[in-house]
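Hi there, hope your week has been kind to you so far. It would help a lot if you went through both lines with me. No rush at all, and the record is pasted right below:

***
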Amino acid sequence: MIHIKRELSDLASDIILPYTFFEQDMLCLDEVSLKCYLYLQARVQAGHSSLDEEELAQRLGVSERQLAEIFTILQKRKLLQLTGEGCELTDLRKRYVERKDKQDALQQTRDRSEQEAIIRQINDTFYNGLMPLPFYHSIDRWFTEYQFEGSVVYALFNELKRYETLHSDSYAEKIAANWASKNICSFKDLSNYYEERNSLNRYADILRKRLRQKQPLNIYQMEFLERWLQEWQLDFSLVDEAFKRASATPQTQSFNYVEGILRNWKEAGLANLEDIYVYEEERKQAYQEKGKRRQKEERKKSARGNFSQRDYSADSFEEYYRSLDFLDREDQS
């Protein structure tokens, strides 16, 4: 006689078979072993705690020796535990949680080792073993908060080297936050991001030469350019034109000043240089027309002052009525 019981816990008290069984166990069992396990689960769910071995073998269409082999297979899969009293069905949810905890602990250990290796590589490659202490705290936070892979962190220090800012932890944090805002975690994410920036970098190089700037545009300037070209979808010719106009003002080469110009054009719906020229010509004509109307109004006002005020006294009305009588007599004659 087989006595069956199931280990119960709050995690699985209301679930017969959790998803983990179908994901991790079902496909690994042969047909007869799967049939046996499902039948045992059904019996337990129905409230039956004992089962005759011979009856079970008959239902499955196997011999008692084959049944013993099936129990051994299920025990190796940790789906049940054979005891002196019979067998005990494993709480699959509990087993999954325990396995997940072990896997997480192992993965954390593995990740930590990889992170430490990346930190050593960065320290040796970029700082000759003398990396400033703030970077250790920053890197640790990038791994935990931003979920950066080691390759992404290493690429970030390549960026710092490119801009000659290897000792600026605030600048490094600016790059890290920018990448995180674009959901960059893996090196593949970063590669896709760089591909999208290729055209932006070409325009950045053109702008750098226009501004006679020896160093590449820094990350703050690149944010302006990215907003104008990618977010606002402006044509680069408008950006170039805005910088030309800004160069004639005290705010020469000011990215904030140029952004003000571009924002005005954007809000006016101007898409190219021709639109700008037409728009400005229309504004010029409208301004001139407004000036003409103002001058005309001013002339009218000054003309009103050249006429003497009429006399509206009682004598003047009497004289007016006499003139009307005279006109009537003229008409009658």
Remarks:
- The chain has a mean pLDDT of 82.
